User: What shape does this take?
Amino acid sequence: MKDSETEDSREGQPHSTLIVSYVYPPEHAPAGVMVSELAEDLAARGHQVTVITGWPNHPAGVLFPGWHARWRSVEQDPRGFRVMRCGHSIHPREGMLWRLWYYFTFGLNAMIAGARSGSYDAVLCLSTPVFGTWAAWLLAKIKRARFVYAIFDLHPEAAANAGLISRGVPYHVLRMADTVLCRLSDSIVTLSEGLKAEILARGMRPEKIEVVAFWLDGRKIQPKPRDNTWRREHGIATETFVALYAGTIGYISGAEVLIETARRLASRKDILILIVGEGPIKDRIQDAAVRLDLMNLWFLPFQPASVLDEVLATADMGLVTLLPEAGKTSIPSKVLGYLAAGRPVIASVAPESDTAKMLRLGECGRVTLCTDSAELAKAIQDLADDPEMRLDMGRRGRAYFEKAFDRATTTGAYERLLFNDEVSLGDS
Assistant: This one.
């Protein structure tokens, strides 16, 4: 009787949540899409949700066409939550100082916007490097709210793995600052057991860290025929085997291995490596492809969300690449799109990385040694020459996705974490 009365007393008393995220749609970063979907699902369960974010400019540091940055804007999303955009520096982030200035201005103005935006029961912050996370923690203290730190990329380790910062005094100062923030957080949520192990190595208590995987909406991305309108519009022949790299081409991606891989596959006129996305090392790879006259390595920009299912369906397999150390602090979310589309995955990653473990557990792909173009080229050829194996891996991948990474499975876990295992308004 007591439990029932407690649950009834919470009826009609929604929790108020603030989510601070430096990426958000229309930016293509998967973390931003996840924030949007989490906000939608929390709102649908009766909670009051506010998202504080910036102006769309990732990954190039250039404001998206049609947008006009202002000091502050507030918009009501028709899905039932509020989005506040705050002012910050916008500049092509070609160096560390410009990146730090962006993070500082975003963190400062996010805190100002949040302080004026009402009261909250919980604050969730994505791992914005250095300043954004501390600003969100201060907001939580001001609002007397529960603070949940979402670590999708572990900083500054991820920056060091990308070669953006050396492991000298600044690195250790930043790592110490982030470690202190971890200790001050009420709870930490991260993406995998590998990332959890890296956080534990800082001396955190295991019970403080929850693992909740990346997710994707399996209703939006489903297995579809490879011969579709998008493929035909881009002049890709039906008989061409497409190895797709879709997503951000970042410093830790290790995507440079695709240059030599394409060179090794140049004699296979039936195989195309297709890169769809943007990022700081895209120009480097594209310039090399032109210099080496690699006709089997194509580049396209990010595509509209409305055709993402056809882009993924065009692929016969998905490609994932990472630098050797990056698998410890980062998981490419692009792998979920491939699995949702029912496509096998070849991952050029460290064998002990979380990505490698995922593919082995799901029996839905192959793992090749990162930076090894010969092994990667052979794995692509093997899949190109064995359609039955591709179909089997693709089916297993979709089944694995539905079990572990579908949206409905994971947003509920965030709800319980944010409100400290209290009864959800949407629970029956």
In short: The two ends are 16 Å apart (CA to CA). Residues 1-12, 422-428 have pLDDT under 50 and may be disordered.
